[in-house]
Design goal:
heterotrimer; A mainly alpha; B mainly alpha; C alpha/beta; A: mainly alpha; 2 strands; C: alpha/beta; Rossmann fold; 3 domains; six-stranded mixed beta sheet; 19 helices; ABC transporter permease (chain A); cell membrane (chain A); transmembrane (chain A)
Amino acid sequence: MTVTKTQAPVNADDGTQAAGAEPVGPARSERLSALVQQHGALAVLVIVSLVATFSFDSFATGDNVSNMATSSAFLAIVALGMTFVIITGGIDLSVGSLFALGGVLAAWGSRHGTLVALLLPLVVCGAVGVVNGLLVARSRLAPFIVTLAAMLGARGLMLAITDEGANTYLIGKGSFLAELGQGTTLGLGNPVWITLALFVAGAVVLRRTRFGQHVYAVGGNEDAAALMGAPVARTKILVYTLSGVLAGLAGALNAAWLASGVTILGNGMELEAISAVVIGGTLLTGGLGYVSGSLVGVLLLKVIQNVINQIGSLDSSYQQVVSGAFLAVVVVAQTWLGRRRQLL
Amino acid sequence: MAEAALKTVPLDKARALQWLQTYGVYAGVALLLVVNIVITPHFLSAENFRTQAVQVAPVIIVALGMALVIGTEGVDLSVGAVMALAASVTALYLGYGLVPALLVVALFAAGVGLANGALVALVGVQPIVATLALMVGGRGLALVLLPQLEDLRNPQLASLGSGDVLGIPYLILIAAVLALLVAFTVRRTTFGRQLLAIGDSRPAAQLAGLPVRRVLIVVYVVSALLAAVAGVLATARLQASDPTSLGNLMELSAITAVVVGGTPLTGGRVNIAGTVAGAVLIQLLTATLIKHDLPPSWTQIAQAVVIVAAVYAARGRGRR
Amino acid sequence: MAPPAEVLAVRGLSKTFPGVRALDDVDLTLHAGEVHALIGENGAGKSTLIKLLTGVYRPDAGDIVFQGRPVSFATPLEAQKAGISTIYQEVNLIPLLSVARNLFLGREPRNRFGLLDFARMHREAEETLRGYGVRVDVRRPLRSLGVGAQQMVALARAVASEARIVIMDEPTSSLEPREVETLFSVIRRLRDEGIAVVYVSHRLDELYAVCDTVTVLRDGRRVHHGRLADLDRLSLVSTMLGRELGEVRSEGLTKFTGDHHATDSRPVLQATDLTVPHQLHGVSVSIRPGEVVGLGGLLGSGRTETAKAISGALPTSSGRVVVAGTPLRGGSTPAAIRAGVSLLPEDRKSEGIVPGLSVRENISLAVLPRLSRFGLVSEARVDSIVNTFIERLRIKASSPQQKVGELSGGNQQKVLLARWLAMNPKVLLLDEPTRGIDVGAKAEVQKLVDELAADGLGVLLISSDLEELIEGSDRVVVLKDGAVVGELTGDEVTEDKLMRTIAGDAPARDAVEGAATDG
C-alpha cells in the first residue's frame, strides 16, 4: 500500500547548509544507521551462529551445515524475487502457492522429459507473475490484494492438477532433474550452488544494470521515476514476473530434491520470504534494499529454526513466534532509523 | 495523466460503475439466489439456509472488524492467527469453566490487538507489516500453546456452537447482533465518525485535534476481539480446538467480504451492510460450486477472480 | 547581429476540461537564450499550458512548433527526450538514490559488458555538479542534501539531457536566499548557453531580477506579452488581476475594514520563546482579545512553524504558550484545541479538509465530542450547529451531505472556519486563509476575520499577500530565519516599513530591497 507513504521532501528549514556546503555531523550518524540497516542482520547471524556452535556439538558439523544450506536454498530463491518486488514498494503474497505449484508442475512434467519439467513451472509461474504485474502496474490495484488473490488462484490451480491434492507426482530416480535437486558438488548440494549463482546474478542485475536502477527508482519515488524516464509499468511487471519465475524455480528444485511434487508445501512461505527480506535490511516502503541482505535474512531464519530444533524440548512452532517477534523488532528498528534520518 | 483520463470517462459509465460499487454486491447475492433456486435441488429448504448461515457467521464477524480497520486505511492480516489463538486458549482454560476461558481469550486477543495498534499508531509501521508480524507470531503462539487438535467436551461450549433460540442458531444471532452493533458504532458514535475522518485524511484528523492514536489502537483491538469471538464460535461448532487450520486464509475471506461489499481499501468509508452481503456472496458462490460437485480448487480460483473483480471495480473511487 | 533562433512557437493552444475552458487560444514564442516569465493568478492556465507543452495533456486545438518542427508529445518523457525539461515546485527526484544515480538515471554510462560504470558516473557527476556550485559526495543519498542543492541536481539533470527549453515551476518556493542567488546565476548561464527558460513564479521581485520577457495569462487567455522591462510592477499586477490601474492604487485589494480594537489589555494568548530545532529560535508572540496580529516574513521564515508550534502540531524543544492565563501542554493539538486555540492550516487540501466526508461531518468533526453523550452523537444538535454555520458563512453546497472534496476552494475554507468557530475558540490561527480561493470568497473570508475580531476573538493572520497582511492586521510581527526581527504597530503598518523590516540591516536578497524601494 503505497498510499500511506509520504515522500516528504527534506524540510525547507533544515536546508541551512547551502548548495555546496557539506554537512559534517549528520553524515556520520547517517552512515552509521545505514550500516546498521545493511549489516545488522549479518552481525546477528554471526553471533547466533557462534553461540550455537559453542552450545550444541551437533550444530557446526558438516552434515548439519550442509542440510541447513540446502533447506535454505529454496527459501532463498523465493526471497531473491521478493527482494526485487519489495524494493519497488510492492509485495508478493503469491510466492508460497507458486512454490507449491512449481513443484507439482515439475514433477508432473518430468514424465515428459527434463526440459518440460523445468520449463513448465517457470512458464506457468511466470505467467501468474505477469498477471500480478499487469494488475498492479496497469490497473493500479493494491499489490497485496492482487497477490493475495493470486495466492488463492495458484493454489486452486495446483489442486486442480493434483486431483484436489490426492495425486502426488513422482520424479524418476537418476533423471537429470533428480540429479539437479539431489546431487552434490564439492560437498554442497546442487540447489545451494544454483542459489549462489542466482544471487550473484541478482546482485549484478540490481546494482549494475539500468533495470536495477529502475527498480530502486520506482520504489523510491514512483512519480519522479516516471518523469525521469524510468519505465515504471514495465519495471513493475518485470519484478512480479521475476518473483513468479523464481518461486516456480524454487518449487521445481525443491520437488527435484524431494523427488516428488508435494502438494502441502509452501504454506506461509510468503511470510518467511518477506521476513527474510525485511530482516536483511530492505525497506518495506521500497527504494532501498540489498540482495545480499536477503540471503543473510534467510540464513538467520534457518539457523534460528535449527537452533530451536537442536534444543529439542522446544516445539518447532516456536520458530514462528521467533520469526514474528524478529520481524516486529526489525520493522520497528527500521521505522526508527528511517525517522531519525528524516530528521537529520 | 490518469486524472485527465478519468475526467473524460463518459458520465453514464461512471454512474454505472458507481451503482455497481454500491449495489453490485446485493445484485450478486440476488442473482446467486435465483440461479440456485432454479438449478440447485433442495436449495429452498430451511435446513440449507441454516447451514449456509452458520457457516458464514464467523466470516461475517471477522469481516466486521476488518471493515473498521480498512476504514482507517489499514488492514489486519492477523485475524486468522487470532482465531487460532482463541481456539488454543479456549482449550487450555476450558477446565476452569466457559466464562473464565472466554475472559482469558479476550485478554489474549486484546493483547494482539494492542500490539498491532501500537505498532501502527505509535511506531508508525505500515499496517500490512505490523499485522503480518502478529500473523506469523500469533499462529506460532497458538501452536506452542496447543500443538495439535484437541476434542473439547464442554456442554456449555457445545450449546453455544449448536444451540438455538426459536430455531435460529446462536451463531447467527451473535453475528447479527454484532453487525448491528458495529453498524451503529460507525453511524452514530463519535468514535465511528473519527475513525472515518482518520481513514480519509490522517493529517487533517490530527490537526482537527482528534485522538488519532487512541482511535487506531481501539480499532485494532476491536478487530482482534471480533476475530477471537469468531474463533471461539468456530471452535464451539467443531467441538474441537484446531489451532493448525482454524482461521487459515480467514484474513483473505474477510478482506474479500469487505472489498466486495463496497468498502474501499483507501479508507474513509465503511459499508457494514455491504460487508455482510459480501460475506454472504462468497459463501453462496462457494456453496453453489460445491453443490454442483465442482472441486474446492475451482472454488478457490473463483474466489480469486471475485476479489480481483471487486477491487478492480472499486479502484475508481480510490483515486479521487 | 542576427536575432536568436526561435526555439518554440505555440499557436492557438486550447484545452477544455469538463465545465472549464482551461486554456483558450494561447500563443507563446520562445527564443534561444530567453528567460521568459509566465505569470497569472491561480487558475489562469499556467499549469495547463506547461502540461500541454510537456506532454502531460494533449491540446484540443493549436500547434506546438519546437525547433522548427510541429510536435505532439504523448508523455512528459517524450518531451524531455526532445529537449523540453521541467523543474517542478517540489524536487522530483528520488530521495533514497545517490546523487550521482539521480543525475544519471536512464542514461548511465556503461562499460563494455553493458554494466554500469560507477567510477565514471561518480567522476562525471562531481564535475557536472561543481558547475552548479554543488560540492558533495555524489555517492550519498539525495535526501542528505538541502533542498537548494537537490534542485540544482534536478537542474543539472535537465541541462545534461540536452534540454533546449527548461521550464521552472516556482523553483524558489523552498529555497534560502543564498540558494536563490545561485539559482539565478545558473539561469543566467543557461541563457548564455542559448537555452530558453520559462520561469513561473508569484514573486514579482524575482521575475524582474532574472526574466527578459513575459506572458501574462488570465482565465485561460493570454492578456499580455512583451518585454518585462516595459511593464512596471503595478501594471503587471493590474494586468494579472484584470483590474484598472486606478483601482489597485486607490481601493487596495482587500475587504478588510479594520473595525476592531483590542478590548482588553491582557493578552488572550501569550507564546514565549518558542524554539524548534532548525526552525524556530525563541519566537514570542502575544495576542489580545479583539486583535488581529499579522505574522510577516518571507517563505520559510518560520511563520507556519510558529502557528503550528502554538497549536501543538509541532513539538517545541522549549518555550511556553499561555492561553487566557492557563499554560498549555506542549505538543498536543487536542490540548490546544480544548484551551480554545484553533489552527486553520496552510495546506487546506491535505491538512484541513477531510475530502471524502460530507460538509456536515467536516463542520462537526472537532466539536463532535461536545455534541455527544457517552460517545453517542446527538444528530439534532449536529444539524443545528451545521445549519447555523452554513447560513452564517454562506457556504455554498448542494446539501450538508455533499462531499467537501467536491466544493470550491473558497467553500472548503469556509467549512474549515465553521469547524473551528463551532468550537467557540478564543484564538484563531489563520495560515494563508485566502490562498487559492476565488476573489469573492476571499473578500468574504476577510470580512469574516474582521467580524470575528470585533466579537472579541484573538486572531493570528499569516499571509504572503502583503496587502492582506497590512490591511488586515492591527499589528505585524515580522519573522526572519525563525526569529522575530521586528514588530510594527499602528501607523507603522505599511508596505514600505514591512519590506524594510523583512530585509533587515543587511538585506538578504537584492530583489527584496528593490521591492522595498519601489513600494
